[in-house]
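== Fold encoding ==
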Amino acid sequence: VQLQAFGGGLAQAGTSLRLSCAASGRPINNYAVGWFRQAPGKDQEFVAAINWSGEHTFYADSLKGRFTISKDNAKNTVYLAMSSLKPEDTALYYCAAGNPRGDYNHYSGYDHFGRGTLVTVSS
């Protein structure tokens, strides 16, 4: 499966953005999908994940309540809705698909990776 993340851009603090992870080549409902991010000068960070069926979602504790992950199998796309954005949300966001066997918050648990989309939040 090939993944493409898009929807990033420049946003003001307090506003919202929705990122998309579009899959091609295979149905996205075969896979769990995770979102990760990496801010300049910082380590990669788990953001959110959704299991193959879409029934279960997982979030970084620090992002719960502001970020929502969802899956639209008909569109073969996974979304990351981000609200109340903060300057510290500035990062390159990328998605990954695979079968992490419960280890959703580790990048190494995924097999397919997309190019990221840059989110910049101004204060």
